[in-house]
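Every protein is a chain of amino acids, and every chain bends into a shape of its own. Below is the pair of lines this work produces for a single protein:
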Amino acid sequence: MAAHKRILTMALVAGMGMLSACEDSDPVVAPTANLTTAATTALETALDDEYHAEAIYLRVLADFGNVMPFFNVVVAEQRHSASLRGVYERRGLISPDNRWDLSSVPTFATVPAACAAAVDAEVANIALYDRLLALELPADLRMVFVNNRAASINNHQPAFLRCR
């Protein structure tokens, strides 16, 4: 457990500089701006998926140490969830708690096995964002979805393909 907390702390510290950059690029929305039921569900779904990926990648780090690309990608997943939580905050809403932890995600026998599973997870994440982006969404939420999807396509998936 102590190793998990140390890894999480290191990942959070490494990602702190990027959080403000993500938040600065989001448009300002009136705190009372309401989301439709579909947009709220989409936001909850995306946040849960980012939390899930973060927990899986933290599990890999807890099991194998600070292996690449998991260390870098877990920091990115933390930025993704922070950008989604930012939508909640700017709209005066409370974001759902993270239901995932190291005991609720799969473990892998080897780093290459984890990389192969991560490729599949990133493909599923891209498909999820494709489905969510087909919905009628407010501009701020759409922008966060587009940015998170692009990171999965351009950064995460290629990194995991290289490590298999």
Summary: The helical segments are 2-25, 37-64, 70-90, 111-133, 139-163.
